Amino acid sequence: MHRPRFDGSFEGWRSEARRLLQAGIAPHQVDWTPDAGLFDSLAPAPADAPGATVRIPRELPELLVQAARFRQQDRWALLYRVLWRAARGDRSAMLPGDRDGAELHRRLKAVRREAHHLHAFLRFRPGQAQRGEPDYLAWIEPAHEVLDLAAEHFVPRMGRHSWLIATPDGVACFNGERLAYLPPGPPGLQAAIEERDDPDQSLWQAYYRSTFNPARLNPKVMRGHMPARFWRHLPEGPLIPALVSAARTGQQRLAQAPAVGAQDGKTVLISPLKAQPVREATSALERCQACPRWHAATCAVAGQGPETADVMVLGSQPSDQDDLSGQPFSDPAGICLREALANAGLARERLYFTHAVKHFAWHSQGLRSEREALPVTEAELTACAPWLEAELQQVRPRLVIALGDGARAALRGFIPPHLAEHGGEVLETNQAPFGAWFAIPWPAGNDTLEALARRAAQWLAPLSGSDDPDRLPRLPGTARH
């Protein structure tokens, strides 16, 4: 059994491992125990083989350097096994799926995590410049040899300040320009650093106590992210056990309640301008379910306009925009029609807008497609006829402009049958609650707004008996009932 003797450093192990590897000594023939017993039988040291050449993968040395930081008694034996196998072409020893490779990568991960812990949980204390000490001092006890791996992290973050980080394995010292690594300090170094007063410790404790949330306490997860061995190095460390214990019994929540209750409340000024308006009670039209159209509709679209209007504009059904806004003719085509009527000399107080049916029925081809209107059926016109009749009896307009086939069909119950098919001219009727009616085809959706405005002006021109759409005189022979 071969027992190599070296100083316990990676450089010493590498020198011995190279010598053993060149001599062909297998891993099971080597005992890497640091201290050999007095009566241990030592095999003669293998002679150097200057002609032997050892070839290993290029990435293996860096893996071995980092894994050597893992503090465990068999670390040198594992490194030599991996080196032995890789030197003989077995690259699987470096992979996580291999037994030795899995242990190697587990230790690499532990080393990286310990370096992160040193970054996160190291706390500096102010030094005494008059005694020649660095500006900041810190003591920490990492589980693995990661001081030289983690100390570079603090160089750019501390600026030109000098600092010293002491561990049981060594000391990292920065003088503001150069980072140096020194052997372990004297035995009293730890006590000397931890006894220094930190003027900001009370501030840290107050901050941690106020931000600690007992409702989200998970001690197991907390210890996984912040191991308990680091608590004594943190300013808030002494508070953690007491806060955890109080959170389990609910004492902290009870202690916070009186402090919150003693605080002065905020005065809220009540302004009637910011008050929400009282919603009116639903009307009979909003509760109407006489036809299936109410299932998919957002709301019932009631007529809009004064009861003394001279002209009633009657559409077939509300549009998609009307269904969302709750107002008739609020879509682009309806807005253009309103502008055309205004340009024709009809003021807003002389117009009443409504539809033959009051709900919007639609279908779509997919989730992102537009809602397409369904045609109005005869049954739906019959179901909505009482609402239209009530509007006609209430407004009693001089003229009804029927837009589209659905609107003209809705007027069949109020005009003689021989006049129901006419629509290109103004037809007077004294048997209905309106003086005259005029039917026009409602433009298709492909018409532009400009074309719609021109057509609306042309529709109104016959009503005046001339080609001038700027005025609408009173129609002869039409009187209010």
From TrEMBL:
Domain Uracil-DNA glycosylase-like, residue spans: 302-460
Classification via NCBIfam families: SAM_7_link_chp
Source organism per UniProt: Metapseudomonas otitidis
GO biological process: DNA repair
Keyword line: 4Fe-4S, DNA damage, DNA repair, Hydrolase, Iron, Iron-sulfur, Metal-binding
CDD domains: UDG-F4_TTUDGA_SPO1dp_like
Name of the protein: DUF4130 domain-containing protein
One example GO MF annotation: deaminated base DNA N-glycosylase activity
InterPro entries assigned to the protein according to its UniProt record, in alphabetical order: DNA_repair_put, DUF4130, UDG_Type-4/5, Uracil-DNA_glycosylase-like, Uracil-DNA_glycosylase-like_sf
